[in-house]
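Q: Given only this backbone (265 positions), what sequence would you predict?
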């Protein structure tokens, strides 16, 4: 338990510090990261509570609503846009909060506000409790879904190897529980296409030398890849949130992200 708590402190501390750095440096990401920063604090507390008093699998949604969602809603009202504040207050007074979380855990289509509230609240709990996350997985999944919880990939990452001639594998990061797993770099993370000619790579090297768009002409989907070999300070989840210009490049070319990130981009 102590090691897991220490890991949580490190994980959320790294996310917090990177968000501060990128928010100060990138004007276009400042508003997004100003909302993300207090969310990191709320998520860290949810992570720690989940470790301290883990719920049973069938009590997951009610635990999230009781122990994680209130802080997320407070952050949204205090630091969110006017539109987000109004939507969150409406959910607070009239919404089925447990139903919202249950629908997100089940992978159902939802309104953007519902996705934000459920994901921001539930994901740190799933990250803290891999055994609980595993109960969400369907019996049969392919290698483009998280082997732990069955979620879709949010992004891809190349890690540091420490060896100049050693190439690190591409890992996908789950949009639901933040688990990482290896997928061949020549495989579309959405449809499984393996023809390199059908998978264009787009980037803005001057702005983001360590980020790129991995797209697919077959399914018209994409995700952002973070290459920590080119920027060892990168924190994949945070850098993906700041990659708004790349999302615009992809959208202009008719690609749709496999999963929108926490902030809806």
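A: Predicted residues:
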């Amino acid at each position: 338990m102590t090691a897991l708590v220490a890991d949580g402190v490190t994980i959320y501390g790294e996310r917090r510090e990177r968000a501060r750095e990128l928010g100060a440096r990138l004007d276009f990401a400042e508003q997004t990261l100003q909302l993300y920063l207090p969310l990191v604090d709320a998520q860290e507390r949810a992570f720690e509570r989940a470790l301290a008093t883990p719920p049973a699998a069938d009590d997951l949604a009610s635990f999230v609503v009781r122990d994680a969602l209130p802080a997320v809603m407070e952050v949204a009202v205090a630091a969110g846009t006017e539109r987000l504040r109004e939507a969150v207050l409406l959910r607070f007074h009239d919404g089925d909060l447990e139903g919202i979380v249950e629908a997100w855990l089940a992978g159902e289509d939802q309104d953007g506000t519902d996705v934000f509230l459920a994901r921001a609240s539930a994901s740190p709990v799933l990250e803290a409790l891999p055994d609980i996350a595993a109960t969400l997985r369907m019996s049969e999944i392919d290698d483009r879904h998280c082997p732990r919880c069955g979620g879709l990939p949010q992004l891809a990452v190349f890690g540091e190897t420490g060896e100049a001639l050693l190439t690190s594998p591409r890992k996908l990061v789950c949009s639901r529980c933040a688990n990482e797993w290896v997928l061949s770099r020549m495989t579309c993370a959405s449809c499984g296409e393996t023809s390199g000619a059908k998978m264009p790579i787009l980037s803005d090297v001057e702005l983001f030398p360590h980020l790129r768009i991995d797209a697919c002409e077959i399914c018209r989907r994409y995700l952002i890849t973070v290459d920590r070999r080119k920027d060892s300070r990168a924190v994949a989840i945070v850098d993906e949130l700041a990659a708004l210009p790349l999302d615009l490049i992809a959208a202009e070319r008719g690609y749709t992200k496999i999963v929108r990130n926490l902030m809806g981009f």
